Amino acid sequence: MSRLEVAVVVSLRGSGRYVTGEELGRICGATPGEVRAVVRDLVKRGYTIDEVPGEGFRLKETSPTLDGADIRARLSTTILGSEIFAFGRVGSTNDVATALARGGAPDGSLVIAEEQTKGRGRLGRRWHSPPSAGLWFSLILKPDLSPEASTTLSLAAALGIATALDEAYGIPARIKWPNDVLVHGRKICGILTEAEFLGRALNFVVVGIGINVLGGEADFPSEIRDIATSIRMEAGDGMTRSDVLVAVMEAIEREYVRLGKRGFSELKGDLLGKSSLVGEMVRVHTGGGLIEGMAVDIDDRGALILRHDDGSLERILAGDVVGVG
């Protein structure tokens, strides 16, 4: 989105009244003709902008579609959303983000789509991401972290999302290690983190996030209907996907900044407080087989710590976890 488009949206949203083309031009550093052209383009993309002769323009509501200019105008972040790439339909936002990152897209770039045709989760599983029903997006991150510590980004993102859902919508979200956000045991969000390295150094990380926002139970495929939920199912109507995205992005940035400045140990207390696993008996399916024990901690590299019946501790780097009992 052009800087002028963002400036017009910001100015109209911040005014709450009709603003003439001349006034908008002075605020945005453009001619009235340029302002009118931008307003026409914004209306074509779904913004509801009233025009009254002699009084000017007024933005009535947030666009129901995900628009880069609208999102940027509403964000108070300084890193996330530094560049926004909004698409209608893509195969996978992670694939698009990886290509953009290789092309030099900056830290914090956001890739978002109305629909994914090849959305995926961990272990190649398909992620149900139908048009305009949820938030399907990827963040390009270039943190100053060791390759080993890059795995903590999934947990930092999960903490931000769980916090945002709780604070903004009163949804008691919990984090299921290593990459899910649950509500009452049902998945509301999945996270897929993919890193790329230059030699032994971390080049960039793409954090792919899928959040079910507007769907009802009948909208989910039968195979996941009993294990999935959405923000609408948990909190009712009254929010737009843009509302949710802004709340989530700002919360993730807080955790991203904390992680970069103070390390993962700074996040651990909050993370453990929202964990759905710690203190529970679990069974972990790993590449090496099946492991059972009590989840007792998450270490400073983001690994899950299990305690076996004999009191010994085991560090789990990756795996699928289910509760026992």
Describe this structure in words.
A hairpin with a 2-residue loop joins strand 8 (186-198) and strand 9 (201-212). The strands form three sheets. This protein has a seven-stranded mixed beta sheet with strand order 3-4-5-9-8-7-6, sandwiched between helices. The chain has a five-stranded antiparallel beta sheet with strand order 13-12-11-10-14, with no helix packed on it. The protein has a two-stranded antiparallel sheet with strand order 1-2. The longest helix has 22 residues, at 241-262. Helix 1 packs across helix 4, helix 2 (21-28) crosses helix 3 and helix 6 (152-169) crosses helix 8 (241-262). Helices cover 32% and strands 29% of the residues. The chain is an alpha+beta fold. The chain folds into three domains: 3-61, Winged helix-like DNA-binding domain superfamily/Winged helix DNA-binding domain (Arc Repressor Mutant, subunit A), CATH 1.10.10.10; 68-273, 2-Layer Sandwich (BirA Bifunctional Protein, domain 2); 281-323, SH3 type barrels (Roll), CATH 2.30.30.100. The model has no long low-confidence stretch (mean pLDDT 89).
